[in-house]
Please model this.
Amino acid sequence: MIEGLKKVLVIGSGPIIIGQAAEFDYAGTQACRALKEEGLEVVLINSNPATIMTDEDIADRVYIEPISLDYVTEVIEKERPDGLLATLGGQVGLNMAVQLANAGVLEKYNVQLLGTRLSAIEEAEDRELFKKAMKDINQPVPESDIFEDVPSAIEFADKIGYPIIVRPAFTLGGTGGGIAHDEDELFMIATRGIKLSPINQILVERSVAGWKEIEYEVMRDKADNCIIVCNMENIDPVGIHTGDSIVVAPSQTLNDLQYQMLRTASLAIIRRLKIEGGCNVQYALDPNSNQYYVIEVNPRVSRSSALASKATGYPIAKVAAKVATGLTLDQITNAVTGKTTACFEPTLDYCVVKFPRWPFEKFALADKTLGTQMKATGEVMALDRCFEGALLKAVRSLEIGVNYISMKKLESKSLIDIVELLQKQDDERLFVVAQALRLGISEEKIHYITGYDLWFIHKIKNIIDLENDFKRNNLTVDNVRLAKRYSMPDVIIAGLTNKTEDEVRQFRVDHGITPTFKMVDTCAAEFEAETPYYYSCYADEDEVKPLGKKSVIVLGSGPIRIGQGIEFDYCSVHSAWALRKAGMNSIIINNN
Model:
């Protein structure tokens, strides 16, 4: 551990906003607990009262104050921490660390910035410095330039040609950015982007919209040990913000050469930037070749880190906090197995699907088009042994009045209408793809219009083919077993076979087609797990030992949406804690 480190100030992420939600309460809470495990005194500043991190049990001292330069400076002056941990509070925490350093506050009060150095943060966040850093290690970035005024940006766009992407510096969730197809659009987006960037800077780059978008979660320590925690693939191509994309982990359509190529690049990037802790690298990969571009790097625990943590069982924020104190990955115990260390790369023997939750039912007149600015308020995660099963589970988890990949309003649409709807990038596109397959539109045509990889379209076609099997053959042991493997609800099977839901259930039970539970243990059952968590599927072996009668189930509240946010996560956690204090076993069920 860093010599002389006794007290650490952790910066939270403030109020929940689009692009910065419960993920950072999750990260901050893990960080505080990890620091306390190492015997450090923890001071927290955050302005959101509904978070678990602002509980008195989590930090030694909590300040519910604005995360602004003046207030954080006052807390530093009063508490005199030895270190500042700002890479777990989202973009707010990161930007605050930069402001404190630039204002000379850290130097004045002798506060060490823990984890990733200021120079690394600036290299990753400042678009010009990032471009130079990538060129140093021969990592390709799209043709681009930095601008602080609109006329120069327009002149550059005229030279490289439209469409182009605008990315403001030091912003969150794609705020202020967008894709411009002509000069008028560029004028509007560039003006907004320069205004919203804290340093009034935008990157204007050649558009690679339509390419595959791939993400790697990487971890590095001061001894230069690096591991890949997880890689993820967006089903939606580049052009839709990753927070608005359906994401699958691990990647499903990369061949081994592409996977290893991007893995190697990720390790080279985190080493070049000298990031200590968690880091998220995003790539655009040409679907017709092995050419790729580095889109951006988050030099902090990102939104995707919560997903990657739950998808793999590897506690990214906890490990990042311990790495920030000077520990190396081989010195940190894996909390799930209790036997391996944090240097052990997670292994997944299942498929994870993340599906965004949008607030459009509250805003009926809102523009539902998805682009480079994030619009989702939350997301659900579903795990299963196959992609079809995870996808159908995710759709059921959204709580939007739909329990399957079909929508009533699409059933009456003509072939021409559906082809037209396929061209819209909106929150209903996956349902439109399913309807297009029902109407016999070819997989190749859907791929051409949407940019979805043929593998994903083929998997959705598997579900549609099964629907047709039920209509032709009614209930058979084989098609019911396959339907449950795909996580198709009994009520849907009943509708396809003119049976009641109870009849379908009875048929299943009579033929031994019942759910089992598998565990997420980071190591594909290579080691026995001490604190795993579980997902259901239809398989032969059940990996869960029941906790018995002294157990209580706590039901979570699902995805974050307007009117139902992190407050209910807070309530559920407190309920679980109270039950355990009362000598009961607590069991939480949630999909967020």
